[in-house]
Amino acid sequence: MRSRGRLVVGCASAAFAAAACNALLDNGEATYVAADAAPDRDVGTFLEDAGTDSGIFAGTNGSMCIYSAYNCQLRADAGEDIVRTAGRDDDWGIDAGAVIRDGNGDVLGRLPAADGGVPRVPFQYGQRRDLPDAGMHAFAVKTSNDSPGWIALSDILGFNSFKDRMGPVLVAQSDGLARMACYRILDRTEPDLEAAKFVYDATDKDPSGVDYLPALRANGKRSASLAFNVPGSVMRGSVIDHFPSGTRFQRLNIVSTFGTQHVDAPLWIKDAEGRYRTLHDRQALPFVYGYVLTSSGERRTGWMAYAAVSPMGNQPCD
Fold first, then answer.
1. Which superkingdom, per the lineage (predicted)?
2. How far, in Å, CA of 165 to CA of 305, rounded?
3. Contact (CB, 8 A) for 204 and 45
4. Nearest-CA neighbor of 111 among 138, 137, 144?
5. Residue 8: pLDDT above 50?
6. Which CATH architecture has domain 92-165?
7. In this predicted model, what pLDDT tens digit does every residue of 253-279 receive, in sequence order?
8. Residue ranges of the domains in the chain?
9. Cβ-contact 311, 181 below 8 angstroms
């Protein structure tokens, strides 16, 4: 596997409170350096990484991984991470008024009727769960709540076609990993990260920082997403669950191919021509690995943006 340099991330930036940085350094949980240190790779290296698969290897969460054995493609065949209709549409008709739920099964809102037709949403491949007292659900990547969320299979129009196309249940692994500190999803966001993209020369429709941060949603509450893989490079940042601010996140001790305990996602902002080709001042957004225990006790494992969480102390979650 070709060696790749690690991107330096500034601990002194607004995303990292001094206390949080000190706790991380004192615990040996991550190696962040001062914001004025020079990055050890440039835009050219990002471009090279973004279009190569020479660093791909088989790992714990899949057969196509990069930077970590837990940062892997959602599908083993590297196929699309959304469930397409027979006509290749990327969304599905839903009963108007269908409930949208978060990872605990709590209601985020309802899908309103669409002008001239039924509401439509895209679904994540291989993501379905039996939510307590609510039945089997599939995970919608975007909803009218301005967030992802779980929607009952019984509310999906053309369900027979959907169930044949959604694939087997895919879950990220956590067995055998040591627990680190306990974190909590923040009740604030970083506005300067919300407009940044994770893919060089992305379109306005491509995922941005807001997809992974505790942004304010249509229901007036903040919530953040758990991802199967870290966005950028050759990964899509596939979102697999969604939780409200205040949710505890148990960080797990993984080691990346850079020797760090996190994986960085490059951040791109618009240049003078309005294209996402300029590196953000922060260069990249670190992602950490761990799990959320839902209110029913189910473990949901994945990657969380470091700017979305804050350590609660030096001990694991209870």
1. Bacteria
2. 30
3. no
4. 144
5. no
6. Roll (2.30)
7. 999 998 999 999 999 999 999 999 999
8. 18-74+171-311, 92-165
9. yes
Residue 120 structure tokens: 């439509």
In the structure encoding, which two tokens stand for residue 166, read together?
């959604």
Are 133 and 105 within 8 A, CB to CB? yes
Retrieve residue 81's tokens: 């991470």
Token reading at 305? 């943006």
Q: What is the 3-state secondary structure (H, E, C) of the chain?
A: CCCCCCCCCECCCCCCCHHHHHHHHHHCCCCCECCCCCCCCCHHHHHHHHCCCCCCECCCCCCCECCCCCCECCCCCCCCCECCCCCCCCCEEECCCCEEECCCCCEEEECCCECCECCEECEEEEEEEEECCCEEEEEECCCCCCCCEEEEHHHECCHHHHHHHCCCCCCCCCCCCCEEEEEEECCCCCHHHHCCECCCCCCCCCCEHHHCCCEECCCCCEEEEEECCCCECCECCCEEEEEECCCEEEEECCCCCCCCCCEEEEEEEECCCCCEEEEEEEEEEEEEEEEEECCCCCEEEEEEEHHHEEECCCCCCC
pLDDT in tens, 123-164: 999 999 999 999 999 999 999 999 999 999 999 999 999 999
pTM: 0.84
Structure tokens at 281: 């001042």
In this structure, what token pair is assigned to residue 259?
């020797």
